[in-house]
Amino acid sequence: MELKTHHLSKFYTKEKAAVADVNLVLQEGIHALLGANGSGKTTLMRMLCGILKPSEGIVTFNAKNIMENYEEYILHLGYLPQNAGFYMNFTVIEFLQYIAVLKCLEADYAKRKIDELLELLHLKEQSKKKLRQLSGGMLQRVGIAQSLLNHPKLLILDEPSSGLDPKERIALRQLLSRLAKDTIVILSTHIVSDIENIADDILLMKEGHILFQKTVTDTLQELKGHVYELLTAENEREIIEKNYTVVNCKRVSEGILFRLLSDDMKDKRSIVVEPTLDDVYLSYFHEEAEYVETNLL
Q1: What is the rounded CA–CA span in Å between residue 71 and residue 69?
Q2: In degrees to the nearest 10, what's the CA dihedral of 129, 134, 138, 140?
Q3: CA–CA dist 173, 273 (Å, integer)
Q4: GO MF annotations for this entry (predicted)?
Q5: What percent of the chain has pLDDT over 70?
Q6: I want to staple 138 with a disulfide (CB 3.0 to 4.6 A). Which of 33, 103, 134, 241 is the partner?
Q7: Which is it for strands 77-80 and 227-232: parallel, antiparallel or unpaired?
Q8: Would the pTM count as exceeding 0.90?
């Protein structure tokens, strides 16, 4: 299977492209779309789903233009939007039955699949509850369930871990890893720890452009030798923040332990450490992000 974009762009004004000249080739596996809010991730995903018409370019699935073969395409598509619309007076099972009808699923198959997904996503006990009675995490699990009803070959998930607690996020990662063997999985997130150990490649998006498509290993390699830990006295904090990109910092008994990005580290007290995807993310989006202070207050 292969999903391709050919010079895909979306313009909302003549001066501003939400998505600009994106060319991707995606096959089975997990493709993590990383970017800050407003970088164009949701717009790109909506075009990949065929919900939003491109201003320029096309999307093909197995060499067929998705807009020209849309009825066939959506049979293979599972989609979880960032802000899923739920009918809050439906019960969980009623909502999934409704989505199964919209997806034209055969009744016996739909019943079996709904039972399977309720079990898989630990929603069995909530199946007869109204959606308005559920927590945000449970609602997100219902959204994930509906995206899987038709056993999709292409699964597009926009911020799927939003609202999930740590245990639920681990379960989601395990589920996606199992699905990725024979499914093209595209997920967007700004929680990079969710995908560091499961993504086959990283698509880094900024200001509508895909800056690169690389494996996690190759992505981390570019920051080797540029990530440091530095233990300082408390009164040095201001000068450290001024001179370096701060990934995070925490108070320890000896002072403040900083994790820093630098192309020109001169402080001999610093120690080179292995980069993570958090470091990569901050290296591209430090203007948009606020660094994390742990136990500092």
Answers
A1: 6
A2: 110
A3: 26
A4: ATP binding; ATP hydrolysis activity
A5: 96
A6: 134
A7: unpaired
A8: no
- Say which residue the tokens 């491109």 belong to: 54
State the average pLDDT over residues 37-64: 96
Instruction: Give the type of residue at 130.
Output: K
Tell me the two tokens of residue 192: 């990079």
CB atoms within 10 A of CB 194: 22
For residue 63, give both structure tokens: 């060499």
Q: Tell me, letter by letter, the H, E, C secondary structure of the chain.
A: CCEEEEEEEEECCCCCEEEEEEEEEECCEEEEEECCCCCCHHHHHHHHHCCCCCCEEEEEECCEECCCCHHHHHHHEEEECCCCCCCCCCEHHHHHHHHHHHCCCCHHHHHHHHHHHHHHCCCHHHCCCEHHHCCHHHHHHHHHHHHCCCCCCEEEEECCCCCCCHHHHHHHHHHHHHHCCCCEEEEEECCHHHCCCCCCEEEEEECCEEEEEECHHHHHHCCCCCEEEEEECHHHHHHHHHHCEEEEEEEECCEEEEEEECCCCCCCCCEECCCCHHHHHHHHHCCCCCCEEECCC
Rounded Cα distance, 212 and 197, in Å: 19
Give the Cα separation of 36 and 249 in Å (integer).
21
Beta bridge partners of 77: 154
